Amino acid sequence: MMKEEINEILKKYDRKKISIGTLGSHSALNIFKGAKEENLRTVCICKKDDEIVYKKFQLADEVIFVSQFQELLDEAIQEKLRELNTILIPHGSFTAYISAEEIMSRLLVPMFANRELLRWEVDREKQRKWLEMAGLNLPKTYKDPKEIEGLTIVKFPGARGGRGYFLVTSPKSFFEKAEDMMKRGHLTKEDLESVHLQEYIIGGHVYPHYFRSIMENDVEFLGVDKRYESTVDDIGRIPASEQLQIDLRPTYTIVGNIPITLRESLLPEILRMGDRVVEASMKISYPGIIGPFCLETVITDNLKIYTFEISARIVAGTNVGIGTSPYLYLKYGERMWMGRRIAREIKKAIQTDRLEEIVY
Ligand SMILES: Nc1ncnc2c1ncn2[C@@H]1O[C@H](COP(=O)(O)OP(=O)(O)OP(=O)(O)O)[C@@H](O)[C@H]1O
Ligand SMILES: [Mg+2]
Predict the structure, then answer these.
(1) How close is the Cα of 207 to the center of ligand 2, in Å?
(2) For residues 88 and 81, is the Cβ–Cβ distance under 8 A?
(3) Are residues 280 and 132 in the same domain?
(4) pLDDT over 70 (residue 158)
């Protein structure tokens, strides 16, 4: 249904004047700079307070102001975007501020993404199914807190950026901590009913970024980052004795990303994982992933790779590659990064009259 409507809209688009649009946050600069390098116009849906970013870097040809991102669904704003021949690039703020259901049913602007898979990525159970279908190693999960064995991370639904997550080691410590978090107002009864209990994997945190190209019929590996998180990344700087005195609990609020390169012997598996995730995505919802996706993994000391999450869209970790990244350099030998790779795919689709295959 939706796809037919999107095709109708595309028919009316002026393909010589396609613009690339996104919400002004997350990886917008990455996306806009990439579009500009490929000579496409850019549209930023922006909150007044954040305008300074797009003004200073001068990357938005058009700015549409909103007071909150949900206004993207307003008919007037969608109409404006269609007038500008906009193709939207979804990033983390889309699913964080607008529900996947609304993106599916109410956003009638062509999007460079498989919308059905955005719905899969916001649902932990669906994600798990997808990753299992792809044959990846996943951390164990526990249905009931009484089953907890060993170090376990307690998560809550939705993309909360690790807010409120906590670690426990036994059923007893789970109930104690949950009680305490509720008393302190960090947790509600409803939260507790929808907890997700997952084996905590100790190892190196590695977030590989991929690009599934329909135009080139390939899955490209673009780079890797790790996250810089408050407060968990600071805890090692505090001696254990003081940690005990202040009853320290790690939190996982992202403040930035750090680029990494992988030991080369990890690459065969990392590359195969990307291929298999795409193959599985084609079975879930044809044509499968369109463009960027990212896995969140932990690699143990015996080099076993555990995947605990997937994003079916650009992730902010690709911002570490703006300008270039080692792995993109290997393939392209020129300035290439995720935002530009997206724009190049769209450009090629325009030139070969295949836009219908990559926007939904
Ligand atoms: N099974 C696990 N083992 C070890 N660390 C984990 C595990 N699951 C999550 N983490 C760590 O906890 C933090 C937050 O987890 P997670 O990514 O699941 O949260 P989120 O709500 O999905 O956040 P985001 O949407 O920003 O990715 C991350 O730093 C991640 O590295
Ligand atoms: Mg995550």
Answers:
(1) 10
(2) yes
(3) yes
(4) no
